[in-house]
Amino acid sequence: MSTSTTASSIGQPLSRIDGPAKVTGRAKYAAEHAADGLAYGWVVSSAIAKGKVKAIHEEAARAVPGVIEILTHKNRPHVAWFDRSYRDQVAPPGEPFRALYDDEIKFSFQPLALVLAKTLEAARAAAALLRIDYIQEEPNTDFENSLEKAYVPPKKRSGIPAPASRGDAQKALDEAHLKVTADYASAAHHHNPMEMHATTVIYGSDGALTVYDKTQGSQNVKSYLVGVFGLANDKVTVRNPYVGGAFGSGLRPHYQVYLATMAALYLKRSARVTLTRQQMVSHVRRPETFQSMALGASEAGGLQSIINSAVTATSTFEDYQENVVNWGVGAYRCADAAADYKLVALDTPTPGDMRAPGAATGMTLFECAMDELSYAVGVDPLQLRLLNYAEVDPISGNPFTSKALREAYDIGAERFGWGKRPSEPRAMRDGNELTGWGMATGMWDATFQKTSARARISANGGLEVATAASDIGTGTYTIIAQVASETLGLPTANIDVKIGDSDLPASPIEGGSWMAASSSAAVQLACQSLGTRLFEAAQDLDGSPFKDIKFEAVSFNDGRIIAKDDPSRFLSITDIMKRADLPSLEVVETAGPGLSGMVSQVKKARATHSAIFAEVKVDDELGVVRVTRIVVAVAAGRILNPKTARSQIMGGVVMGMGMALHEESMMDTRFGRPMNHNFAEYHIPVNADIHGIDVIFVEEEDKEVSPLGVKGLGEIGIVGTAAAIASAVFHATGTRVRKFPITLDKLI
Amino acid sequence: MPPQATLQPAAPAFDVKVDFSLTINGRKHSFSVEPWVTLLDLLRERLDLTGSKKGCDHGQCGACTVLVDGKRINSCLKLAVTLDGSEITTIEGLADGDRLHPLQQAFVEHDAFQCGYCTPGQICSAQGLINEGRARTAAEIRELMSGNLCRCGAYTNIVDAVEEVVRQGALHKEAAE
């Protein structure tokens, strides 16, 4: 079967199909679902970082008119005993946090009470009147001064590769002609999606719960709630049709969904819990990262040794781990490399995955060391990368399914005008400002996960495609519609995409940049299977024009099945349904690596690559940095929709600019208390910070990485961006800043 | 002797309600609510107009931007009672039935959003900016839209969308003159 190209075909820049709902305010997010008799929950957070709750004085709070109940560890209903009940799909090893479980306080802003009232205002007022007495202990939240306490996590987090060493890196370093050592650090970041974490639980007349949660995985949250509260599987549905950004913060079920569900079950009425922006520091962050690197190279710049050691922060109760170090030892050809990775446990919430977890920090910091090496060798930074280009995966020795990084370097450099770059720092000036040009490489995994999808066609020709995927702004609704449209030759106006519901066919959580590759494969398979069923139904009709031809000899176009060699022989899908007396036809299919007919999983490396070029202007006296131009060339396989794909990359680049210049979650280590937990003080890029961002997708055909040749785009935009900016800042000023973000105080 | 003044603060009074009215998206509403209810919470929790978003509740992010008598404001920082008699336009009031407002259309075409959460505030802010007559260049738009944060990083597309509508508006104006 085949189709002709239409505006909604794969590869076309179709505008988001969920766009009209989002620009008119019709799209309902987690805290926006109405319910009769809704109880508003307001969380009361711990004022201390470590210790115990001594007493909770509730009288004044309970006296506020409209207050329904106050839940604390003293009166909460029964919850599961064992840690395994609280462990979700992405939980690291350890004891998952349980809100209101006992009197122990493990981090500042830990939820200690939930005030429930008939109005938001009453809940807030009562929460302010709740007084808590504490028994304080000394917290440790000082990452920098705890590095000597770093430990190798005894239990590995599932899915995170162990640090990969090869050869004898120390010997190779000792023997190398040139050596560069560099210690780099990156601040903790908070995801800060624009929508605060929130949950509305609708309590049904039969006691069944419909849970609207801000999550990246409705099925992950559902199984968590079933485990924690001992619910029957058919008594809880989790929905997330619209998610106001997440960037990893919605991968694990957080305490707002736990508290809202607990409240609904306890009160037997609908309940909602919305965190404040300040409370958004109390569940998950990108951990503070320290990376120590030693590079050995030949006189010409050929890498001879890489030693890459990293330490990241975790909590005292879970060992959160990410792949920080393997990017550095896996990006370039080098015979001898060593990597190690340790954790420091702090009295904070457990960190978690944030956009390109591990790579946004590990690859970026490594690329900064590569920039230092380029100056030590005296070669152009781009030339250094080309000199050490890895044709095969340096860690496994396996070939790549595809790697058009060389093309990305070439096209990016050409577009940027890299060839005109003076090699010396401080060589370009524009009035009071010094101009600098820098570059870096980006890398991320290209994975594909087992996913199911359902396709159902109705007698009127309307197609419904369904899978429990999430669209966190990534464009999932739109690409699913495009894949279905192309496969069955139907206009997207006739296609209803259903996602964001735990009752739908199984989907992985939205993360790791695997959603596009995975959901597109499942939807294509389901639509192909539905096409086969439609064709068979058409063949069975009296006087069918397809009696003597095979499925391969027809195409699906304009709502019809058409014989390829004789377009006068066709049947419309509505005709087939009517004449075969079918009210609807439905199939469910599962796509996944290793399943029959899917891409082979033979030993090959699967990765997305990018080349980022940045121009900065730095005020010579004030140290103010402006990023005036970014060119990013991305090799990410097949692009399903260039419009939404470009937005994904731009978003990653903007967040990378934040990482380079603004973002830093500050802690008052005397009290273990977050200091800048709001948008006035935790700076993210604003419109005035962003100038030209030129996104280029490099041609990269790949028949092995995933069924549609898709690699995913959610993470790659951020990886390396901060390194390109740091490289440009050094080129402009001659000052090497080894601690992100590069704020002006570090330049003057 | 007069009685000794007490140092204790007065017990908080919770049973206070104030009557006022607002015209919201062309429709007049009468209210009797507590004076501490913000315009944003009134819209979202009492009228189910959830298009206006809460992103910080502190006037730092712009997600709650609505138009009050044509001027853009952060509705989370405004107590509803103080607006008695005002005309409020929210994102729900911009489209003409099924026909999108030019800014809404331009935002869809330029992919000026991803998750969509800051979008109603961006669009209301852009309309307010156009009303101010100051959005003449891309640089001005960038600067004057900087009170509206977008964590998805759709900024350059937002500028493109607003610029297009400003340009079209100028063309229409010329044609009319």
Automatic annotation (TrEMBL), chain A:
Gene3D superfamilies: Aldehyde oxidase/xanthine dehydrogenase, a/b hammerhead (3.90.1170.50), Aldehyde oxidase/xanthine dehydrogenase, molybdopterin binding domain (3.30.365.10)
Domain annotation Aldehyde oxidase/xanthine dehydrogenase a/b hammerhead: ranges: 24-139
Family annotation (InterPro entries): Ald_Oxase/Xan_DH_a/b (IPR000674), Ald_Oxase/Xan_DH_a/b_sf (IPR036856), Ald_Oxase/xanthine_DH-like (IPR016208), AldOxase/xan_DH_MoCoBD1 (IPR008274), AldOxase/xan_DH_MoCoBD2 (IPR046867), AldOxase/xan_DH_Mopterin-bd_sf (IPR037165)
Top-level taxonomy: Bacteria, Pseudomonadati, Pseudomonadota, Alphaproteobacteria, Hyphomicrobiales
Protein name: Xanthine dehydrogenase family protein molybdopterin-binding subunit
Source species, domain of life: Bacteria
Native source organism of the sequence: Tianweitania sediminis
GO molecular function: iron ion binding; oxidoreductase activity
Pfam short name (any one): Ald_Xan_dh_C
SMART domains for this protein: Ald_Xan_dh_C
UniProtKB/TrEMBL annotation, chain B:
Keyword Iron part of the UniProt annotation: yes
InterPro entries in UniProt: 2Fe-2S-bd, 2Fe-2S-bd_dom_sf, 2Fe-2S_ferredoxin-like_sf, 2Fe-2S_ferredoxin-type, 2Fe2S_fd_BS, Aldehyde_Oxdr_Iron-Sulfur, Beta-grasp_dom_sf
Keywords tagged on the record: 2Fe-2S, Iron, Iron-sulfur, Metal-binding, Oxidoreductase
MF (Gene Ontology): 2 iron, 2 sulfur cluster binding; metal ion binding; oxidoreductase activity, acting on the aldehyde or oxo group of donors
Pfam families with a match to the protein in the record: Fer2, Fer2_2
Residue ranges constituting the 2Fe-2S ferredoxin-type domain according to the UniProt record: 18-94
Superkingdom per UniProt: Bacteria
Record-linked PANTHER family: OXIDOREDUCTASE WITH IRON-SULFUR SUBUNIT, OXIDOREDUCTASE, IRON-SULPHUR BINDING SUBUNIT-RELATED-RELATED
Name this protein carries in UniProt: (2Fe-2S)-binding protein
Species: Tianweitania sediminis
Source taxonomy: Bacteria, Pseudomonadati, Pseudomonadota, Alphaproteobacteria, Hyphomicrobiales
